[in-house]
Amino acid sequence: MIEMKVAGIALDAGTRSPIVLLKDMRDRRALPIFIGQDQARAIVNALERQTPPRPLTHDLMVNLLEAWDMTLERTIIHSLQDNTFYAILVVRQGETKKEIDARPSDAIAIALRTGTPIWVMEEVIADASIPVDQDADEAERQAFRDFISGLRPEDFSQRGHRSPNGD
Question: Which Gene3D superfamilies does the record cross-reference, listed alphabetically (predicted)?
Fold first, then answer.
């Protein structure tokens, strides 16, 4: 899993639909997730630390967690199926841990309110992320190519190991 942070909310140029943009901690990959207007507003409110006069849905969830002495340990965006992201909230109460299915936008809004880390599975990053720092990506690829080009067959043999044939 890769820890991500909310970089902000953007609007899709074509559809004007809101997108929450997650970035990895090294600012190398970005994961855009289309969300609804209400969820975008909830995420922006959390990013700006705005407190409504009465609890809204995500605030209510945080209040319930606190009232029942529960801790949100992490939010995990675990899969992408048919262009839909799936997430879970990992909640602990004493020794009991539960995983609760959630929309990523709701999970992110709650995580921001509780200061909980947001994690994304590597497969999701591989399938849906976009590069942010292409120069660093190219430098990594070049370093790997240089490493591969310097390998020799004897680099793959295990020293001191004999096969069953005595080789």
Answer: Bifunctional nuclease domain
